[in-house]
Amino acid sequence: MNLSLPYLSLLIAIPTFGAVFVGLLRNSNEDQVRKIGVFFSLITAVLAILMAVNYDQSANNVMQFVETYTWIPALGTSFALGVDGISLTLILLAAILVPVVLIAGWKESEGQRGSVRQYVVLTLVTEAMMVGVFAATDVFLFYVFFEAILIPMYILIGRFGGARASYAAVKFLLYSIVGGLLMLVSLIGLWVISKEQFGAGTFDWFALQDLQIDGPTQNWLFLGFFIAFAIKAPLFPFHTWLPDAAGEATPGSATLLVGVLDKIGTFGMIRYLLPLFPLAVDYFRPVIIVMCLVGIIYGALLAIGQSDIKRLIAYTSVSHFGFIALGIFAYTSQGLSGASLYMINHGFSTAALFLIAGFMISRRGSRYIEDFGGVAKVAPLLAGTFLLAGLSSLALPGMSSFVSEFLVLTGTFTRYPVPAIIATIGIVLAALYILLMIQRTMTGEPSDEVRSTVGELTTREKFAITPVIAIILVLGFFPQIVLNVVNPTIERVMILVGATDPLPTQGDNK
Amino acid sequence: MTAYAWLLVALPLAGAAVLLLGGKRTNAWGHLLGTAMSLGSFGVGVATLIEMLAKTAEERETIIHLWDWIVVGTFHVPVALQLDQLSISFVLLITGVGSLIHIYSIGYMAHDENRRKFFAYLNLFIAAMLVLVLANNYMLLYVGWEGVGLASYLLIGFWIHKPSAATAAKKAFVVNRVGDVGLSLAVMLMFTAFGTVTFGEVNAAAESASTQTATWIGLALLLAACGKSAQFPLQSWLLDAMEGPTPVSALIHAATMVTAGVYLIARSHAIYDIAPIAQTAVIVIGGITLIMGAIIGTAKDDIKKGLAGSTMSQIGYMILGVGLGPVGYVFALFHLITHGFFKAGMFLGAGSVMHGMHDDVNMRHYGNLRTAMKITYATFGMGFLAIIGIPPFAGFWSKDEIIRAAFSHSPLTGIVTLIGAGITAFYMTRMMAMTFFGTARWQDDVHPHESPKSMTIPMMILSIGSAFGGMLLLFVANIESWLEPVVGFEHAHGGPDSSVLIPVTLTIVAIGAMMGWVQYAKREVPLLAPTDVSIFTKAARADLYGDTFNEAVFMRPGQYLTRSLVYVDNKVVDGVVNGTAGLVGVVAAQLRRTQTGFVRSYALVMVLGVVVIGAIAAIVGMA
Known about the structure:
heterodimer, A: 510 residues, mainly alpha, two-stranded antiparallel ribbon, 23 helices, B: 623 residues, two-stranded antiparallel sheet, 25 helices, globular
């Protein structure tokens, strides 16, 4: 279908409108509120898919579906939207996951401090802002979305989470604000430099790439952005807010937080750090690669040591974000494309893990591994889907995550063999953290509590989780669906930063 | 039929999908569908072979490109199948033995409530194993490689309520993952050095590759082979894998999956041919494992674990064989196929014995079963004669060739294979004697009986393979010239002549067999294993301390490390890095009292931000 629409503003407007609509509804029960929420999120998802279908993979322009509206001319900032291959796939990820989360977490907003209506409103607002943050081509607009999205997420964690939700929510907020403020400082710096060099200050992403910034200045500006992104993504040692936040949030919110929101960090690295501060990236690269490696192994070891299923999943993500960032800073097309694909795959596989873990937790009334055991016997389908989600997390070939993890490793190896070899330890540890959890929760004889509480997947749950698992498997065998979209963008990034893939060292292909 | 070769994989894969997604609705006929899919795949394999036979040796390799799997920069990986003499040999072994084991399982698993799931996993295994051997590149091979690992995991842990089965399944997967790191590294090295990961292009590039590169690739591939083929030092999972149902042990942990390491090395022959250090490493690993497995086999009272030790040992022979280079490739693969017949046959025989003995696996409770289970006795006996290498049974031909090739490499290598042959004769005679001869030591309420036809017929077919398979492959199928175009072949030079070697080998085998016979058929076998035994027996019973080593070096320090890190992360990293831990506590406490406080503080931050921007804009504007 060839439809020319202002897709991006619609993708922001529809969930926003949905949020307002739900917010203004009176005399409707909880089920109606949820159904309306799902309705708006489904329209958004359909529209996002339409946009993806209309995206021209062979086009030469950097951004497509470009829209620009005047905003604050005095500051040289405009409401400018557009997508490249990476942001397109991330918006698609968000748009698909929101209805899944709303359907899967049908009951998780009940009996909380906040109301079901609030939950639906906040989720839709979050969706709108996620689209905004990925679609912004004006750095100031990006910053505004980057900060604003904290508000609905903070309330989602704080008002709908577990016993220590307030603590976790505030911790999340403080970390993010510290990162955001550092980014703001760098942003202002960029603006000042653009004012000096162009005569008029600007936040336009395209224009900022033409700035001539010397090395030391780049380093300082880089740090502001990098720390903000490293907190968001999160990289070791900035990760400690994540297990608390993801552990306390409802499984649905944890999915959006870890699956999509955290990708702003790694997305920002490719979109902003690489083109704007190439000298600084070179300067800091050794340190960052060490951070990634420590994160890969440290996150995996901590996941092995967890007794709380949701915290365990959160730590696996710390390990996975190490892989993503490693691929980005390896500066090869395999590393960068692998990292971009990894963001999508990690989104879906983390969603599967959190949501199915959520199904188990809501039945048993406990997040602790020791309270399960023998689930496979009483709920084989639930156990089977959880195993599949786990296999996706440990990057089994045939699952989408394998392709991206291997691309990252290969892309790293061609330039930095030793870090790549160290990173492979993560492959072994991943098998341990997933299979230990599976063994402890699924195998053995079920206890009386498990027998009486843990039942098989309901129709609604099956309905929510099926598309996620289908995507994981399809992308495992046909990753080109995403790679064809991402590759041209990565090629441009490589040219922009002046990087080329190492050539084969020997043989006829030399 | 060649164009439809994708059906080889698609049929069992479809079977697995239907049985898993169909759920209970397919319970009634699931086992039949699973068996039909495996047989269908075998049929396609036979048709493909017939077409291949019609071509000349040089034209037999066909690449079937299905779709582009991964294309990023110069990293180009297709989903493509490579049909040649090597892959089709494996296809027939996998689907042939696989189908027999499907048929056998219909009877063996008849009373298991999850029989349908069992057949689904078997189909999944067949599909993954076929991907492994049909792939035309190392990445797609990787899919099959870990795919069979998944099927193995699911089937070892099939009786999921048994904690020992669940632990064994996890152990098998994790140990294999250590090996898989080797495969990952090999693929990365190949891409970095040659810019390609397809077999044909890697082999071509290897001709001009540096020895150093080839050595590293060879060692990485060896690590992968050690994991999948249970070779030292990654052998420990295989004995525990016997927790799975016996047909699984026969198919996956004897006949097919565990030989994948041999396949991998033979497939990568061009790399090894220019990397003598890697070849030596392969020989050493094979040699160590062949002796180790045999020693473990001498001390096991559990019939399946005895056979598992034997499998390790026999794969040791194959690994050693492929380490020898062109004098060994063909014969290692030859032994792989004959071993597939006789070891699968013996595992099915063991399953048949267990079936008649209330699932008791302790051979000390067996004895004199030849009277009660004539078919099982006869078919197991054929396998026995084949594995110890009595002419004209299958194992004689293949093992003899490996021994001769080993002597052409060095006397030491040759002697190791001879010693192995002697120990093999001892432990297999022990097993034969304890099970089928001597006095009946059956427990109360056990009434041994022969198994149903669905089980005995596959055993009979495999025993025919054990008896005649060697001669057929060597003299009728001409296995050397059949495989030569793919892996290369040279006649072994040097070392003792066959006219000397064969009598010597047979004498050593006879001595080993005699010792086993005297001790276990002629003397009374105690019901309980004697405890006042030598340290050697103790060591053999403890699997030569493989697990003890793993626990002391990896498991316990690892557990200590993870526990400490959890503490450190909660107390130190959280606190030190940001210094906000205390602050968070204070702020959180404040906010708990005034829930709206947050919005105010956030607004303040935002306002502050805007003010800063405004101020700077103003300053810059004024300047």
